[in-house]
Amino acid sequence: MNFYLWGGCELEDTVPHLQKRMPLSKFTYVGGTSCGSLFSNAGPVTEAVYNWYEQLTTTEPERSKRVQSAKNLYQEVVTKDYFPDWMRKEITKDDWLILSFSKEIYPRYNSPEEHITLGDDMVQAFGTATKLKFPKKIVSKVFDKTHHVGFDDEYVIHTYKNEWGPMLAEYFYDIFQDRVLLVHNEPARRYYHPSIGVYWDLPTINSMSQIYLNSGAGKYHNKDNWYEVSKTVKFLHTGFRLRYPTKIPQITLSHKETVGDDHHKFGRNVFHYTRDTHKLIARRIISKLSTIIAKKAGTNIS
Fold first, then answer.
1. What are phi and psi of 286, to 5 degrees?
2. pLDDT band at 280, cuts 50/70/90?
3. Could you list the residue range(s) of the whole structural domain that residue 153 is in?
4. What is the DSSP letter of 220?
């Protein structure tokens, strides 16, 4: 029995703790992106990334293997192969998907041709790519503010409800059927700093992304927008469950249960939690899976 995790750091960081609790199973973090990016058509940026990466792997194969951000950029924009054919062949009727939607909160590059998630990892990846002869005019296009939209953009919400959401449900159902566990973490309101301990804060959305920070949009600097993030994450989970072909379980961790980490390896973020929070998430996941699987098999996996 193996488990595949799709989402952000709130799931990736739990893998060691999940693995420790279930050493006979394998937990694989496959990554994640917004569903708009996953189902985007190919456009000029996609073509540029494809041509650049193909040339890089041909002329500097060893260097291309070492630069992880180049591989991440290629996957995010071109291949989108989070579940490649070889992996799908290995997935059995006993394997599960553990899923969260934190990646949906990040800003996006949006044009009539394509839609690309712009988390800080992708911002950095494009920056690294320019040092490896990626076309600067394409980077300028990607970072043109007129092409940026947020998670709360009317087009994004409308398309999620009517196109991307149903497509995502079909995408995962085709692989895992009813073996899906949704993990709904509310954005953090408590944070830990070594010098002062745990403190309360309503983070602004600009803390989640350089794109939001540099947008100049007042709504991303307003303390009240924490509630918009929380409401959107809840909407995504509820909408996905309604559109999924079968009934799927969910666990929810409220902001009273989670603590953000001021010194997370990727910086401060509403979904970058402390180690103790990762342990809590892992316990809740194992507990829920144990109950569900025990009903099917008549045993307990924890």
1. -65, -40
2. very high
3. 2-187+232-257+274-297
4. G
Sign of CA dihedral 169, 174, 178, 179: negative
What is the Cα–Cα distance from 249 to 62, expressed in whole angstroms?
Answer: 44
> pLDDT band at 55, cuts 50/70/90?
very high
Structural domain contains residue 139: yes
Asked whether residue 98 is assigned to any structural domain, the reply reads yes
Place of tokens 């993990």: 183
Residue 110: which residues within 8 A CB-CB, separation 6 or more? 36, 147, 148, 149, 153, 155, 156
Average pLDDT over residues 13-28: 94
The rounded Cα 209 to chain-centroid distance in angstroms is 13
The two three-digit tokens of residue 79, written as one number: 């291949």
With left for phi above 0 and alpha for psi between -120 and 50, is residue 177 left, alpha or beta? left
Confidence (pLDDT) at 224: 61
What's the pLDDT score for residue 41? 93
Type of residue numbered 102: S
Instruction: Give residue 96's pLDDT band: very low, low, confident or very high (50, 70, 90).
Output: very high
Helices (H), the chain: 9-12, 15-21, 35-38, 44-59, 61-66, 68-74, 85-90, 120-130, 136-142, 154-159, 165-176, 210-215, 225-243, 275-297
In a 13 Å sphere around the CA of 36, the CA atoms on its Cβ side amount to: 30
Q: What contacts 224, CB < 8 A, 6 or more positions away?
A: 202
Burial class (CB in 10 A: 0-12, 13-18, 19+), 220: buried
Please determine, for residue 109, whether its predicted confidence score (pLDDT) is greater than 80: yes
Do residues 138 and 44 make contact, with C-beta atoms less than 8 angstroms apart? yes
Residue 250 lies in a domain: yes
Q: Report yes or no on 219 lying in a domain.
A: no
Work out the average pLDDT over 15-34.
94
- Token output for 21: 């609790």
Number of compact structural domains in the chain = 1
Inter-residue contact 73 to 33 (CB < 8 Å): no
